[in-house]
Amino acid sequence: MTSGTRENAERTDGPHQGASGVSPPPTFTVRPARTTDVARIVEMAQPLVENRVLVPKERVVYYEAIQEFLVAEDHQSSLAGFGALHVMWEDLAEVRTLATLDSWRGHGVGSALLNQLLERARSLGVARVFCLTFEVEFFTRHGFRIMADQAPVDPEVYAELLRSPDEGVAEFLDLARVKPNTLGNTRMILDLGSPQH
Length: 197
Hints:
Blueprint: E1 2-3, E2 29-32, H1 38-50, H2 59-64, E3 69-73, E4 79-89, E5 92-100, H3 109-124, E6 128-133, H4 136-141, E7 145-146, H5 155-161, H6 167-173, H7 179-182, E8 186-191
Parallel strand pairs: 5-6
Antiparallel strand pairs: 1-2, 2-3, 3-4, 4-5, 6-8, 7-8
């Protein structure tokens, strides 16, 4: 579990003003998601799905992937954001379904979630992390770069990935069948370095 602190560029909370006369920013905690979080995740995701920011998913998909998710919540256990890391291949994973409530934007929630998801990727031995996003500037600040083509994927791996029924894999491969899901999104990748063995 990680809490937002000034040292790691996250924000802290307090209902009263500090010595400077300015109210401290809100605090939040990042932790692994639990099955009891799914209803809140779906509720928070719905407006983003309606605005085509997130790809629609059935509730069962969230339950099936709950072990991939982290959530950020405030001191009252209200959801502030969530995100997932989905492994696609030996050295490749995707950050997916990363979202922050509008009221929490600018308070470091997205960065805290992303940083912990990237730490998970490193601990799993993943060398590259993919994302499909409208938030190019955010991901660029975290070291991601725009993918020009499929050059980062070996042709044999590409052929194996084509067999996956996962929509995120199809989006990574830029397959025509998922084009309606990806319109306006940017495919980005981050090199984490050589996997740890």
